[in-house]
Amino acid sequence: MNRKTYSLSSKDVEVRWHVVDAADRTLGRIATEVSHLLRGKYRPTYTPHMDNGDFVVVINAGKVRVTGAKSRQKIYYSHSGYPGGLTETPYMRMMERHPERILQAAIKGMIPHNRLGRKILRHLKVYAGPEHPHEAQVNAGKGEEKAEAEKAEATA
Q1: Which of 9, 18, 67, 125 is the most buried (most CB within 10 A)?
Q2: What's the average model confidence in pLDDT over 73-80?
Q3: pTM of the predicted protein model
């Protein structure tokens, strides 16, 4: 019987790629799902002080929904660092100009606010439309036959 606690090392982590479709789904629910994938919390070997999460590609960020009056009332703030440099952007304007930033901001709030969190956020790729340039990485872990079967199923 081994009485030593198993400690995960970075070479033991197998990184996977996930594609999450945000079309007609609630903003907070998608952000929660994506943050769990980014942190690796679904793995039995989850370790809080390590990056053992996966890469996540979010598509159709421009079609995400919000509940209640948030579409009229929510405001995003940014500051340039200079006096008087506070910029307020309403949700609707942000959705028109940069829909991917809405999801990034929601997910960023659910990730640790430290060096590890910044590293984890680099694994997040958000796109406003259905196209993304990470098809090769997503299909790399699936194997040739499974990737071709999924592609044939999507076109049918």
Answers
A1: 125
A2: 97
A3: 0.85
